[in-house]
From TrEMBL:
It comes from Aquila chrysaetos chrysaetos. Residues 94-213 form the GST C-terminal domain. The keyword tRNA processing does not apply. This is Maleylacetoacetate isomerase. GO terms for cellular component: mitochondrion. One of its GO terms (molecular function) is glutathione transferase activity.
Length: 217
């Protein structure tokens, strides 16, 4: 069998929001894969090991070995899955809606999550919680307003899109960092609707092979 036919391998950490985005895409598209867990806290962070650096020089999860290449950066991975496995589609056909999906995804992926990721929080010491709350809250204020124009049942209209794959893991982080979700009724409603879908359930941080027993669903 050629490497192109091998099952993809996802390097993942159960509660990494970026890993979860990719797990949702794989689940929605029905792509079977094996998980190699990378524990971001253990041994000073397994992402910094020489072994993992050889897989992903960026020393971050997720990374996906697929079709003979190794990809990192969750949205680049999701776009590859979209290009190679277009059903169900995660980008709307309508070009304006498509741009709105990308706008929302980028807002979360570039404008919120990197400000509250592990490497930044480590440098915040005691201010960690407050910092994460402020970054997520200011990002969500903008997102709430944006969604009031774009949302149907989901972030953009009534079809699940890449924006939704970014939203749900970011709300999980917000809850983890005890952000008051009161001011974001649209975000809360869409998150709830998405969590009813099977692909969002099976990929949830509480159900992963590396989820610690005390956090398992
Ligand atoms: O505290 C830990 O268990 C370690 C890391 C994470 O969960 C992942 C992140 O860096 C946050 C994120 O996904 O945005």
């Amino acid at each position: 069998m050629s490497s192109a036919a091998a099952k993809p391998i996802l390097y993942s950490y159960f509660r990494s929001s970026c890993s979860w985005r990719v797990r949702i895409a794989l689940a929605l598209k029905g792509i079977a894969y094996d998980v190699v867990p990378v524990n971001l806290l253990k041994d000073g962070g397994q992402q910094f090991s020489a072994e993992f650096k050889a897989v992903n020089p960026m020393q971050q999860v997720p990374a996906l070995k697929i079709d003979g290449i190794t990809l990192s950066q969750s949205l680049a991975i999701i776009h590859y899955l979209e290009d190679t496995c277009p059903n169900p589609r995660l980008l709307p056909q309508d070009l304006k809606k498509r741009a709105q999906v990308r706008m929302i995804a980028d807002h979360i992926v570039s404008g919120i999550q990197p400000l509250q990721n592990l490497s930044i929080l480590k440098q915040m010491g005691e201010k960690k919680m407050e910092w994460a709350q402020n970054c997520i809250a200011s990002g969500f204020q903008a997102l709430e307003q944006t969604l009031q124009h774009t949302a149907g049942r989901y972030c953009v209209g009534d079809e699940v899109s890449m924006a939704d794959l970014c939203l749900v893991p970011q709300v999980f982080n917000a809850e983890r960092f005890k952000v008051d979700m009161g001011p974001y009724p649209t975000i809360t409603r869409i998150n709830k609707a998405l969590l009813e879908l099977e692909a969002f359930k099976v990929s949830h941080p509480s159900l992963q092979p590396d989820t610690p027993a005390e956090l398992r669903a």
